[in-house]
Amino acid sequence: MNSREDLGDRLSSNIVAEELRGARVVKAFNQLPAEVLGRDPWVSGGRRVVFVSSNDDEASGIVQTLAKELGFSPIGLGKINEGGRLLLFRTPLILHNLVEYPLE
Prior knowledge:
Elements: H1 3-6, H2 12-19, E1 26-28, H3 34-37, E2 42-43, E3 46-54, H4 57-69, E4 73-76, H5 80-86, H6 93-96, E5 99-100
Parallel strand pairs: 3-4
Antiparallel strand pairs: 1-3, 2-3, 3-5
């Protein structure tokens, strides 16, 4: 059974937001498995990338600030419908190894 079919092609984050009215839902850190999240986010002089999307810009900014404080490099992907869909790769391993390096 395909989970996308179960959700009627809706993103689970949007369903959670609908069920928890008034909650400020932010989709972040979910493209990385726990074993990668548990590692030092500094990789060979760069910071591991995490993607952030939310229908609430203020909440998204708070989570992006938290990600920076934890040593990650957050990339805002816009609203959940936009950014969440960008993360539906068939090969999620691509997302596990993205690192932002400082420009020199």
